[in-house]
């Protein structure tokens, strides 16, 4: 069924034309005002090349997912992850003068961002930072693939549905922490350096508050796994491994949010966020998660913008090795290979 357009408008900000299309009944004007402010700040940079921006404010992203494929250069998670993303910027590196920004009302409301102007500003600023933050390292990262071969004596990974789901989870995790990490790190860094640091800090405080509440759901997973152990469908070691994988997938990517504050000299902000992690998140997770986070953070802080292909592959192997060493403590051997996708 076709969507009914509730709002359409044209705006011009510092030489950039902003087109707004929405199927949302109300609440559109604040988004336009914030988008205008974000564009105005970025337009002061010599790197800004956007001439036309189309801003879609939609109830959900179903119309978008119907039109896209996995080959469309989507963010981490691809089509499956798209409905859960609050804001997405789709742009073509070969055509840097235009982009399409999609705001997902359902996801924004679920995360508590819909009426939070600071969070909206941070999200929009981050999405617009992506094309501005492109560099040699991010360009090379787009040509890399990760191939994983997990092996475990405590969990069958070869024939069972559970094994297949576990391998898929590990692949998504490796992709995000290794392949997509440069793009997220440099976009966050650009966001901070462009004057949106306070807004991004607010957003990350919200993210950590959600993470703190999220650990309650972990107890439900733990109880479900214990029931599987009691019924003989899972070994205790297998339960521990699955719980660790869930912890890593749920919380390890917080390093991507915090490391940019270190990279931009805002150590106080980074330490504040990490204090929340230490007090409200890490105590409820497997102890291996804290060590993996710290190692990843150092890798992310050290990432340079001018890495050659061999240098980026070496950096990526270090990231994957952190993941492999962490999983090995629970009995999973993660063999991996970084390769060039021509």
Strand content: 15-25%
Please count the beta strands (DSSP E, at least 2 residues each).
Answer: 7
Q: Report Rg.
A: 21 Å
Number of helices: 13
Largest sheet: spatial strand order: 1-2-3-5-4
* Main sheet attributes: strand count, strand direction, barrel closure: 5 strands, mixed
Sketch the topology as an H/E string, one letter per element. Answer: EEHEHHEEHHHEHHHHHHHE
User: Please, how many domains?
Assistant: 2
Average pLDDT level: 91
Q: In terms of per-residue confidence, which ranges show pLDDT below 50 for 5 or more consecutive residues? A: none
User: Distance between the terminal alpha carbons, to the nearest Å?
Assistant: 39 Å
The coarse silhouette is globular
Percent of residues in helices: 55-70%
Oligomer: single chain
Structural class: alpha/beta
Jot down its keywords.
single chain, alpha/beta, Glutaredoxin, 5-stranded mixed beta sheet, 13 helices
Explain this structure to me?
By secondary structure, the protein is of the alpha/beta class. It folds into 2 domains: 7-132, Glutaredoxin (3-Layer(aba) Sandwich), CATH 3.40.30; 141-340, no CATH class. Helices cover 58% and strands 16% of the residues. The protein is globular. The model has no long low-confidence stretch (mean pLDDT 91).
């Amino acid at each position: 069924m076709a969507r009914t357009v509730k709002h359409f408008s044209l705006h011009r900000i510092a030489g950039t034309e902003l087109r707004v299309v929405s199927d949302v009944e109300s609440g559109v004007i604040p988004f336009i005002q914030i988008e205008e402010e974000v564009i105005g700040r970025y337009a002061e940079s010599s790197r800004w090349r956007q001439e036309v921006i189309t801003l879609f404010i939609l109830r959900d992203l179903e119309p978008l997912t119907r039109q896209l494929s996995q080959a469309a250069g989507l963010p981490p998670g691809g089509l499956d992850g798209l409905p859960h993303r609050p804001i997405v910027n789709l742009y073509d590196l070969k055509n840097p003068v235009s982009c399409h920004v999609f705001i997902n009302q359902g996801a924004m409301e679920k995360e508590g961002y819909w009426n939070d102007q600071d969070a909206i500003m941070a999200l929009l600023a981050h999405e617009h930072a992506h094309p501005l933050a492109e560099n040699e390292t991010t360009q090379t990262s787009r040509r890399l693939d990760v191939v994983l071969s997990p092996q475990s004596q405590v969990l069958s990974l070869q024939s069972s549905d559970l094994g297949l789901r576990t391998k898929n989870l590990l692949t998504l995790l490796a992709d995000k922490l290794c392949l997509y990490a440069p793009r997220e790190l440099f976009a966050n860094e650009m966001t901070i350096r462009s004057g949106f640091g306070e807004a991004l800090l607010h957003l990350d405080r919200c993210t950590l508050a959600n993470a703190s509440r999220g650990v309650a759901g972990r107890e439900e997973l733990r109880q479900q796994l214990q029931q599987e152990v009691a019924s003989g469908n899972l070994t205790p070691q297998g339960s521990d491994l699955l719980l660790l994988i869930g912890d890593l997938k749920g919380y390890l990517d917080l390093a991507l949010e915090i490391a940019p504050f270190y990279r931009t000299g805002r150590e106080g902000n980074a330490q504040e966020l990490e204090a929340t992690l230490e007090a409200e998140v890490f105590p409820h997770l497997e102890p291996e998660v804290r060590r993996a986070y710290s190692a990843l953070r150092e890798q992310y802080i050290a990432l340079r913008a001018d890495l050659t292909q061999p240098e980026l592959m070496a950096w990526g192997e270090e990231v994957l090795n952190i993941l492999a060493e962490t999983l090995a403590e629970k009995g999973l051997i993660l063999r991996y290979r970084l390769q060039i996708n021509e």
